[in-house]
Amino acid sequence: MTLEEFRAVFAEAGLSELFDEMQQYAKNSIVIEVQHEVNQQVLGASRFGGEPDLPPEIEWFSNPETGSPLNFIAQFNCAELSVFDKDNKLPKQGMLYFFYDVEAFLWGFDARDSIGSRVYFYDGVMERLEPRLCPAGIRRFPVSGLLFANRVELPEYTSQLIQTKLSDEEYGRYLDLIEELDLEIDNKLLGHSNNIQKGMELQCELVHHGIYCGSSAAVQNHQVPEFTAGATAWELLFQMGSDDDNDVHWAEDGRLYFWIRSEDLIARRFERAWQILQSY
User: Would 106 disulfide with which of 14, 30, 113, 119, CB 3.0-4.6 Å?
Assistant: First the structure.
């Protein structure tokens, strides 16, 4: 949908004021369609699961506390993404890899949770890539091919970017609109997060500054007002949902989210991405 089409449907639902605020934060996302029937690995191709294609000098990433290997969940060939990256935020070439520790199963509430995931960017010669078998004893996720599409997105009402307050009746109309427009997405790069609970931008910023966010005490921390403005510096990098067909479950039908500060995205410091898990 275009912004003008969004404007019309929000107006019809009596939610023009909400749209007026949301449109200020409109972004382009790369929506991912999972092809479960494409279960063969092609060297250097984007995919969920299977084994990663890594340069030979890179050792398998592991949890520095336990020594356990991280689980490979996805790789993206940036050249395949480029045509869909309308805001030119991702590299034009190279490979982007995502790993997560399914044994530790960390939620991203605590600064120490950085041990449980890793994002790696390779911008070298693609001919140097080679399939790397998953270490023995860890879970290997099924291979799925991926298709991509561009989509204009607005932040959700639960995003911490949004200050407009809706009545219960207006919120009901908003939820109906989300369902009618099929705006709930499981898998994507960039754009805005589809939140299972609340927005995550402030959580990223608070944890970045060492504030634990796994309890209600976080919002009572006297430093929160100091860091609130910094929440707008965080962008969604990758969102991956649970998938019954591939027996991929992030807690109770949850989603994994990888966030990154805008300055780190520009500088290609993908290793600084922050992972959050939300679940129903």
Answer: 113
Per-10-residue mean pLDDT for the chain, 280 residues long?
96 97 97 92 96 97 97 98 97 98 96 97 97 96 96 94 95 95 95 94 95 84 87 96 95 96 98 97
Give the C-alpha distances (Å, rounded to integers) separating 19 from 3, 25, 275.
Answer: 9, 10, 29
Query: What is the rounded CA–CA span in Å between residue 184 and residue 239?
Result: 12
Sort 149 into a burial class: Cβ within 10 Å, 0-12 / 13-18 / 19+.
exposed
Let me know: does 75 contact 58? Beta carbons within 8 Å. Answer: no
Handedness of CA 76, 79, 83, 85 (dihedral sign): positive
Whether 100 contacts 71, CB under 8 Å: yes
Sheet holding 95-100, edge to edge: 117-122, 95-100, 71-77, 47-48, 144-153, 27-35, 188-190, 234-241, 255-261, 274-278
Beta pairing partners, 34: 146
Helix (H) or strand (E) holding 203: helix 201-208
- Three-state SS at 21: helix
Question: Running DSSP on this structure, what letter comes out for residue 46?
Answer: -
Q: How many other CB atoms are there within 10 angstroms of residue 130's CB atom?
A: 12
The dihedral over CA atoms of 36, 37, 41, 45, expressed in degrees to the nearest 10, equals: -70
CA 140, CA 267: separation in Å to the nearest integer?
Answer: 31
